[in-house]
Design brief:
The complex is a heterodimer of chains A (96) and B (485). Chain A has 96 residues and is mostly helical. Chain A has a domain of 37 residues: Orthogonal Bundle (Histone, subunit A). Chain A is built from 3 helices and 2 strands. Chain A has a two-stranded antiparallel sheet with strand order 1-2. In chain A, a hairpin with a 2-residue loop joins strand 1 and strand 2. In chain A, helix 1 crosses helix 2. By secondary structure, chain B is α/β, with parallel strands linked by helices. Chain B has a single domain, classed as Amidase signature (AS) domain (Amidase signature (AS) enzymes, Alpha-Beta Complex). Chain B has 15 helices and 11 strands. In chain B, helix 8 links the parallel strand 7 and strand 8. In chain B, helix 5 packs parallel to helix 6 and helix 9 crosses helix 12. Classes of the chains: A mainly alpha (96), B alpha/beta (485).
């Protein structure tokens, strides 16, 4: 049985903000299905009562003194922006 | 004979005695690059003008009494996912084709302090996703030992450039084996330090809980010196560890009497080529002759590491790569109708196939309704894998096995099925999941292709890993062989 459908792949691509073609949809459906089927071997293991590890270091909320520092100059920060105007990055209109 | 056949300590001595100049070292790099780069294809960007200028200034300092560190004047290559101010950094992706970083990574700052000279930026799999360098958007780096073979990945350029003698040493990054696997394929020394040992500030993030920067060198001693220079707590990376950095070189005593080695049966089992297995058994004999003992152990959850890794690393990647949206930096599509359309087209046009596949897998694993079944399950399995290591390290000093199941494979051999390519990393991935340090050192050849021995240590015990690696290296000749380019 297929674990993931073409519609799901399209939904995931939308969540990931990735335009995909029909051809890619088909390819990703097959490949993700194979990878997810492979990953389901994890269900063989009983993990009841096992804590998840998100990070191997035993640390939480590393704090530092809040000391004001000079930021990067605006011209530097905008240097790599594809489009900018009046010191701000520019994007297509958001409101209809 | 190349200048880079000498160790750092020897070159330093020659500089000190004024038998050698920094410009000689930089000349050696660019001369070799002009000879072999067409074949090897290890570099994405060269920084020749600046490097030569810096070398001249450093030669002026050679005549003064000013103290010079051990790495003073040493030519280095840097993987192209480590940001370098004013030097193009692409992550081998089209989406960062013209990206000109506005700050240096902490490791790059540390290299500046140590006064190394950056020769250029090295090719890799796009965003460090891959095991062959075939996922670079720009070029396919070749294995210097056999140009029909891959150098490994993702730090393929970092390993190939050192093996080919284009640089003295390099920096790579390792998320699931990306330093150790190419080091193994190219016959050089590659260390993935303990998670938290080296600052990740300025390393373009792939999977933040797994990524570590580490050194690739010709010898274990050089490796220890380079790791020394880049290690330590960094206020800019809250996951860098507040753990003292010992002198790694002091651990290179050659004495491993009484050392207890664990050899996981899972690392010599199914999928591992017979000649690879034999090279590890031969290496264990060498170590026994030096006074170590070894026993077979089990890391019972090893077989689940690959699946857990791909779920976790892809999930983290899908979040980390959300920043590439065509707004603040990088490539932007030319025909966007709206902001959402701009994001989608920019990413579709800017990312390569493997990167898209992992973003899709990660987004799926984190999406509503699947999070517990895939992402959280993988995190729990990660705990079990980490516990496996902790259990073994209660009784043993190091764990030893092969770095890879096979020597370097041919270009295009594994590109059709993603799962076949992923299986290459089966022996290196558990080390990242557990966060422990691991090194690959040359331990043999099959059909003139190098093989790597993997030595894994306890958290923050790189010293013991180096001690064992160095003792083995001193007792063998594998590291002295060079590719006949």
């Amino acid at each position: 049985m297929s674990r993931i459908s073409a519609d799901q792949v399209k939904h995931v691509a939308n969540l990931a903000r990735l335009a995909i073609t029909e051809e890619e949809t088909e390819k990703f459906t097959n490949q993700l299905d194979a990878i997810i089927s492979f990953a389901e071997q994890l269900n063989e293991i009983n993990t009841d009562g096992v804590e998840p590890t998100s990070h191997i270091l035993d640390m939480k909320n590393v704090m530092r003194e809040d000391v004001p520092q000079e930021g990067l100059p605006q011209s530097e920060v905008l240097k790599n922006a594809p489009e900018h105007q009046d010191g701000q990055v520019k994007v297509p209109s958001i409101m209809e | 004979m190349s200048l880079f056949d000498h160790k750092v300590s020897e070159l330093h001595e020659q500089l000190h005695k004024k038998e050698l100049k920094v410009t000689d070292l930089v000349d050696e790099s660019y001369k070799r690059i002009s000879e072999v780069e067409e074949k090897v294809q290890a570099f994405l960007t060269l920084d020749e003008e600046r490097a030569r200028e810096t070398a001249k200034q450093m030669d002026d300092k050679l005549g003064t009494d000013e103290s010079k560190g051990l790495l003073f004047g040493m030519p280095i290559g840097v993987k192209d996912n480590i940001v370098t101010k004013g030097l193009r950094t692409t992550c081998a992706s089209k989406i960062l084709e013209n990206f000109d970083p506005i700050y240096d990574a902490t490791v790059v700052n540390k290299l500046h302090q140590a006064e190394t000279i950056t020769i250029g930026k090295l090719n890799m799999d796009e965003f460090a996703m891959g095991s062959s360098n075939e996922n670079s958007a720009y070029k396919k780096t070749r294995n210097p030992w056999n140009l029909d073979r891959v150098p490994g990945g993702s730090s393929g350029g970092s390993a190939a450039s050192v093996a080919a003698g284009e640089v003295l040493f390099s920096l790579g990054s390792d998320t699931g084996g990306s330093i150790r696997q190419p080091a193994s394929f190219c016959g050089v020394v590659g260390m993935k330090p303990t998670y938290g040992r080296v600052s990740r500030f300025g390393l373009v993030a792939f999977a933040s809980s797994l990524d570590q920067i580490g050194p690739i060198t010709r010898t274990v001693e050089d490796n220890a010196y380079l790791l020394q220079a880049i290690s330590g707590l960094d206020p800019m990376d809250s996951t860098s560890a507040n753990v003292a950095v010992p002198s790694f070189v002091e651990s290179l005593t050659g004495d491993i009497r009484g050392l207890k080695i664990a050899v996981p049966k899972e690392y010599l089992g199914e999928g591992v080529q017979e000649k690879v297995r034999q090279s590890v058994l031969d290496a264990l004999k060498v170590l026994e002759n030096l006074g170590a003992t070894w026993e077979e152990v089990s890391l019972p959850h090893s077989k689940y590491a690959l699946a857990a890794y791909y779920l976790l690393s892809s999930s983290e990647a899908s979040a980390n790569l959300a920043r590439f949206d065509g707004v603040r930096y990088g490539y932007r599509t030319e025909n966007a109708e709206s902001l959402i359309d701009l994001y989608k087209k920019t990413r579709a046009e800017g990312f390569g196939e493997e990167v898209k596949r992992r973003i899709m897998l990660g987004t799926f694993a984190l999406s509503s309704g699947y999070y517990d079944a895939y992402y959280k399950k993988a995190q729990k399995v990660r705990t079990l894998i980490k516990n496996d290591f902790e259990e073994v390290f209660k009784k043993y000093d190091v764990i030893i096995g092969p770095t890879t199941p096979t020597p370097a494979f041919k270009l295009d051999e594994n590109t059709k099925d993603p799962l076949t390519m992923y299986a290459n990393d089966i022996l290196t991935i558990p080390v990242n999941l557990a966060g422990v340090p691991g090194i690959s050192i040359p331990c043999g050849f099959v059909n003139e292709l190098p093989l790597g021995l993997q030595i894994i240590g306890k958290h923050f015990d790189e010293s013991t890993v180096y001690r064992v690696a160095h003792a083995f290296e001193q007792a063998t000749e594998f590291h002295k062989q060079k590719p006949g380019l």
